[in-house]
Amino acid sequence: EVQKLNQQLEEKNGEIQKMINQPPYEKEREILRLQKSLAEREKAQATSDVLCRSLTDETHQLQRKLASTAEMCQHLAKCLEEKQRKEKGNSDDQISTERSNRLLDNETSLQALICNLQDENRMLKQKVAHV
C-alpha cells in the first residue's frame, strides 16, 4: 500500500512538473478551461436549485389542493347521505335506487379525482427527488 501511494505521489509530481514546464500560454489556457468548467457547473447548480424550489412549491400547492378537495368530497358525501336518508322515507324504492346510483356515480367521480391528484402529487415528489 505504501508503494502504491508512493507511485501515486510520483505521478502527481510528474503532472505538477509538466504544468510547471508548460509555456505560460498553455497554463493560461488550462486556467481558462477550468474557469469555464466551473462557471458551467455553477450555472447548472443554480438552475437545479431553482427547479427544485419550483417543484417543491408546486408540490405543497397540490397537497393543499388535494386536502381541500378531500374535505369537500367528504362533506358532499355526508350531505348526499343525509339527503338520501330523508328522501328514502318519502319516496319509493325506484326513486331511491336512482338517487343511490347518482350518489355512487358522484362518489366514484370524486374518488377518481382524488386518485388523479394523488398520482400527480406522487409524480411531482418523484421529480423533486430526481432533481
TrEMBL record:
Domain of life: Eukaryota
Keyword Coiled coil: yes
Key word NADP present: no
Positions of transmembrane segments: none
Keywords linked to the UniProt accession: Coiled coil
GO terms, biological process: cellular response to lipopolysaccharide; positive regulation of canonical NF-kappaB signal transduction; regulation of transcription by RNA polymerase II; toll-like receptor 2 signaling pathway; toll-like receptor 3 signaling pathway
Record's compositionally biased regions (Basic and acidic residues): 1-15, 82-91
One GO cellular component term: cytoplasm
Residue span of region Disordered: 1-25, 82-102
Stated name of the protein: TNIP2 protein
Species of the source: Aramus guarauna
Upper taxonomic lineage: Eukaryota, Metazoa, Chordata, Craniata, Vertebrata
Gene for this chain: Tnip2
